[in-house]
Amino acid sequence: MANAETELITQLELIRQATALIEEAYASGSSAESNSHAHETYLSTKQLSERVPFSEGALRNMKSNGEFVSGRHFTKKGTKTIWIWSAVEEWLRHHDHEHLTATPFLSQGSKNGRS
Asked: What is the pTM of this model?
């Protein structure tokens, strides 16, 4: 009987801790919407280039040129860029890919592809 009681007390304590965490999240204004990145798909630049019609270099240039916005389309972890797939997907739905595919390959400060 002691084992059953100990297990019940342990389970009740876990429930109490979980409830406290949930209450704390609600009190701080957190919501399911603000925590939506918990189930997000994150990609490296190489992985993203395999899903979209742009090379790794084009993605880097588009990021540098402001096409993609830090905090919305990607985040940084050290020197690595971590892409937020749902934001990039949304961006793709609203942009003209044919117009963009040529321009991202130009280096910054160059005209007509010449440095």
From this structure: 0.54
